[in-house]
Design brief:
The protein is an alpha+beta fold. The protein contains 14 helices and 19 strands. Strand 16 and strand 17 form a beta hairpin. The protein is elongated and about 85 Å long.
Amino acid sequence: MSDVSRDRLDKLDQLRALGVELWPRQFAGRMEIAPLLSRADEQPGPAVRVAGRIAARRDMGQLSFFDLVDPSGRVQVMVRKDVGDVGHAIAKKIVQLGDVVGFGGTLGRSKTGEVTVFATSVEFLAKSLREPPEKRHGVTDVELRYRYRYLDLMSHPESRAGFVLRSRVIQELRQLLAAKGFLEVETPILHPIAGGAAARPFTTHHNALDMDLYLRIAPELYLKRLLVGGLEKVFEIGRVFRNEGISPRHNPEFTMMELYWAYVDYVAVMDLTEELFVTLAKRHCKDGKTQLGERVIDLNGPFARKTYHELVAEHARIDPHDEAALRRRTAELKLELPASAPAWKHLEALFEQCVEPNLVQPTFVTLYPTAISPLSKQCPDRPELVERFELFMNGWELANAFSELNDPLDQRARFEAQVASKDPEAPAEVDEDYLHALEHAMPPAGGLGIGIDRLCMVLGGFLSIRDTILFPLRRPLAAEAPIDSPPAGTPPPTAGGGATPAGG
């Protein structure tokens, strides 16, 4: 056992000897720190009860000074001997950095003018058995910040602010949609058939029914069943799961908002999407603009609208309708495609390689090839294209939408083609239950999916999706040693003695 661990465990023994309850259930009457700071000059000084984490301590003779932090702010606490023998012993001998402590007292100012709680009582609430992060730099290793998010939140106020932003964005998105008459619903997370998107699913097994199930890769097909049932404007915000790689833009578990709107097409959904993004940007970004690295993204609208093929022509510098030219260009760029790959695969590869990185300012990409959009309605005059758009900015896809395919015969043919392709990202069987729903007539409709995590990346100016997910998936480390055992394997992400967390 390290000296630090032994010392902190010894403090627990000292608390027991004083007859103090080690892990009390509550601290009644607690007040947030920030609202109290403006009351420091009231006469007489108001009685307060504050609690939080100890971020710093200073001892001057019989006086002990603490910096106490909670999510709202920081305040100095002064403890004198008149708090009683037990309270004074706790303050002088037991309280350490990282401990959670409650103080009752009177609010005022110290001789130097600093807002101070002059303590009349001390209540020990929770003992930190590990050293907190180092004061000046906190947890500086980025990977450790993601792995030990609680230390990141403890040390970095800007990280906490990012997750507060995320919560508010989701609340406001709900309010905006509800104001337009959309009904929030919940659909299954366990699916008997993985459908609604092109992605590898996670598989699980239900023991009682002895059947394999999939964590949903999209809620789409269940939401559209609700359109058949007569719910004409529905949306869902929830987790989806895709058994794919991890990158600055991808996490296997992420949050999606999907909505479906009866009797409109993808153009109406495009207008709604722009309105949502512009409204949220005006609320959370200065002048409606956000900065992502060196780039300033203007979200004030209107957003550019360009077709898939004209963007390939512009950025790949070829005729996207010329199959031979497509194959030559992918070969020139050394994009690995099998010789048997159809022309649309080459077109798709060129879009990803040449177009996406250049879509910096908000751009709606419209009219996608039918071959890569199995759930979208075809254009009446051009069946090789579908009424679909994706919203891009900073080279990232932020939203995907289309005029929904509601022809059950066409949908069956496309499902069967997907199954026949043996594509590992396509369903392995036809979803007969969904087709059964379509055969009862689904009204024309537009649908939309927005990645909440990427939306928050844009609004918060984050370059990694892991900055918007509290607990992103990480490769496991060897188990850390318990506090009362010799350390083994990877040490905990803590810094040296005497350090204090910045900001709490």
